Amino acid sequence: MTTAGLDVGSRTIKLVLFDNGILSSAVTDSGLKPLERCRRLLHNKSFDKLTVTGYGRDLVAPELSGATISEISAQAVAARFLYPDSAGVIDIGGQDSKVIRLNPGGGVSKFEMNDRCAAGTGKFLEIMARALELSIDEFAQTALDAERSVTLNSLCTVFAESEVVSLINKGEDAHAIALGLHQSVTTRVAGMARRVGVSDRLVFAGGGARNPCLRRLLEERLGLSVTVPEEPQITAALGAAIIAASGKNQGEQ
Amino acid sequence: MTLTANEQMWKEMGIDLESHGQLMNALGPIYGEIYLSQQNRPQGMGFYDFVVGDIHGIRVKELREHSKDGGKVVATYCVFVPEEFCWAAGAIPVSLCAGTQFSVPVAEEVLPRNTCALIKSSYGFKLGRLCPYVQASHLIVGETTCDGKKKMFELLAEQQPVYVMEVPNKRGTAGRALWQQEVRDFKAKIEELTGNEITAENLGEAIKKVNARRREFRRLSVLRSADPAPISGKDALLATQVSMYDDVERQTQMITALNDELEERVKKGEGVAPKGAKRILISGSPMAIPNWKLHHIAESAGAVIVGEESCTGSRFYNELIPEGIGYLEDMLTALADRYLKTNCACFTPNTERLDDIIKMARDLKADGVIHYNLQFCHTYANEAVQVDRALAEAGIPLLRVETDYSDEDAGQLKTRIDAFLEML
To answer: Which SS3 state, helix, strand or coil, does residue A203 take?
Structure first.
């Protein structure tokens, strides 16, 4: 049986086709009409069942005759599928960050998610990269190349942006600012990880996991190593496809 | 333009008709979507639909009628204020708490933004002349359960007479002595306001009346422990919210009828959600009308809310006052002690609340607890750390959410609640 998992995120939409393994995957920007984008992604694809996760799940699922699952459950399932001994997931996405602790059976035993604001998310980093006039990749590299960092006092995205502007105007080095910004995200996420109580065998997923500086800082701060899947962006979609295959969420929609 | 009878009344009360009209126009569709769309509702909820349908009409008119004959209306914000004195002295107590984002921007013209939504909303109701209940009241009674409210009452006193009761921070000997005196001072205040003496006889009657309503709410709580749950959490919450400003005897009657109906449902195994639906206990900050957000999100996701460990829940009805005490002084002592048992996060320590949550979760056979925290309510937010630990020890899953009255975080809340229900 082939199943499809669709992750309708705030920044991008991800599709995974699954049959005991990933058959194919695709990523596209969410845009202003996510439902249309989903239809285009699914065009000419054949599958037996669809499960939708992510922010837009309730908009998209009924239109495409799919079931829904939360991103948190989807990430947990994908982490266990990719790494059977994993005990936790850190997911830094476009709009939220999450830390999930898994129980021995692979289910979610505890999780935390950032409250409404963008602090500690991919959005935060995107806005800060723009303030430094760097692409996301350049921004990560600039931070990695830094020899020292400046401490950013504000976690609020809007205030942090003003702080960055005033640091630039004081002549502060862009490398040090970039590293400081990455540190403020990882401090926040590591705090959540401590509250959730993850200790080892952590999977780092979501678009944020593509940022090597975040990965290095998270490992340093938590004092453990994290595993980044080959395509960290698609793990929630993968989890949704696996859940569709298991039929566990068919009752709901 | 001709005014309806209600509009005429509101105008006489100094209500800002235009803004108020917008508020009323917004409430109707929200109520329709959240309440009237529910399946298998008990017939007893018809009364509450009727009350909300004319939320600023009929009851306000009753208050005005009462005032015409010299009767007093006493508005309160908190379950610490002993309503028995009002009933005993022939005054009508009404709860003023406000639960809508609509009045928040008005309040933010004065109050700091990082103040809890409940404080802002209630202050905004007065400032924006949006609430006929506050307009109809002769005295507002505040209390010192949090610093934000304490200071808000000082500002509110610029607009209307306000009396503040001091709730101690500790329940020890000194705290109890303070509270005993505060209760007696409040009695004197109500006597002065109404010109009526509070006697052993009329206070005894009032205690019985309020106890009767509390007993029916306790019965309702027991009925909600059935699986399938005979009533939605939304409906039970609404009954509690309305009881806080309605006539005590009428409410006892209405809840009794509702309970009788629910008892039949439980016997027949009928419910509002399928047997085995995930059962959630809500614990934390109060939810004033029309704050139905969390209940609505959780119940729309397939859960059923089976209890509220809250001021708009168990803290409102749990403890009774002993009846049949003959001496006024002893009655006052017993009454004060009853209110001091309210497990508000303003107390340090407040371990009794942790025990309450665990007991309620077990009695109601809850699969999990959602700790609801109004943003910027520091006492509950900090106490949530201990709630988290206590529930972990008891093996009861907990989800902590912090939110306010706006809808901007509805998506995030839904994700968390969906994930929590999937996890249970």
So the answer is: strand
Q: Please give the model's pTM, rounded to 2 decimal places.
A: 0.94
Helices B233-243/B293-300 angle, 10° precision: 160
Of B271, B301, B229, whose CA–CA distance to A251 is shortest? B301
What are the tens digits of pLDDT across the range B47-93? Answer: 999 999 999 999 999 999 999 989 999 999 999 999 999 999 999 99
Q: Is the Cβ–Cβ distance between B406 and B376 less than 8 Å?
A: no
Counting one residue from chain A and one from chain B, the pairs whose CB atoms sit within 8 A come to 44
- Given B409, B411, B415, which is nearest A72 (Cβ)? B415
Closest by CA position to A42, among listed A55, A32, A52: A52
Q: Is residue B382 less than 8 Å (CB to CB) from chain A?
A: no
Helix axes A136-144, A212-222, angle to 10 degrees: 40
Give per-residue burial for B148-160: e unless 16+ CB within 10 Å, then b.
bbbebbeebeeee
A108 φ, ψ (degrees, to nearest 5):
-80, 125
Tokens of A96: 């939220």
Structure tokens at A244: 């569709």
Secondary structure (3-state) at A189: helix
Residue B152 CA neighbour count, 13 Å, CB half = 30
| ipTM of the modeled complex | 0.90
